[in-house]
Amino acid sequence: MKTLFKTTIVQLSILFLLTSLNMAYAAKLEQLSEHFSKDSNHVYMHKQILPNADPATFELITPFSAKDKTHVFIGNQLIEGADPRTFQFFGPEIDMWGIPMQLYAKDKIHVYYMGHLIEGATPDNFRILGNAYSTNNIHIWEESTLLNVSHPQTFEVLGGFYTRDKNYAYFHNEPLQDVDSATFEVFSDIRYTKDKNTVWLYRQPIESADAGSFEVLQHDFARDATHVFFILKVVAGAHSSSFNVIDRYFSKDKYRVYYKGVSIAGADPDSFVTLGQGYAKDKRQVYNRSKVLTNADPLTFQVPP
Known about the structure:
The protein is mostly beta strands. Helices cover about 10% and strands about 35% of the residues. The chain is elongated.
């Protein structure tokens, strides 16, 4: 019994000592942001010691970046060669992991993208183009990588991984062959592109499409002056000017009703209405997708729960 009592006393003494030490440590620890803290000996990033950081001069730039008298840090990454006195972030702000951040930074000599040096770039003539592209009118960079483009002075970002200069259109920075750069454009639905001669979907040419009158509709439909297209195929018999996409299943023109680009025999476009969940009806019949429900009355039919 005495042995057990002594053991318990020792354990309680050790626990008290550890608690006291932890309280003393916590009292000395200064929380700088959600990510950084410091005491008199170290700087911490998420409770891990941040190497090379000087606690006496360490200060935040943003909640996720900081500097001391000789270094700049983004998270736990040391930005080699950065000048802490002139280092600053610039450019558009985006949300990264729930943290508002500017991806570009500069000091008196260099420019950086997400902490990586953009070799050859200097702050005085550097310009952000968007979508991680930038220029100094002599070179083009994507993020911090130098690109090989034919004419940097006319380079522009089109969206959807497409860019161009006066000589070429590019996809993922590779030049596209047999494309007229001057008339090349990307639709708001970035799957579609065109030049004066050709329309493409996912870089596949849409046969018979007239580039001059081509427009993108909804749910994989498009049209030009004389045709309607579902993905890459012409919708047989569709009347272009009256064609209307109803929902992801159904569409119609003044002559026919279609299920995913295939006409539904006997469906009346004037009285055709959708009911939801792939059901529809006209004045004569009820439809489940392209199938006629032969025993269903359009006047009383209700969509099953």
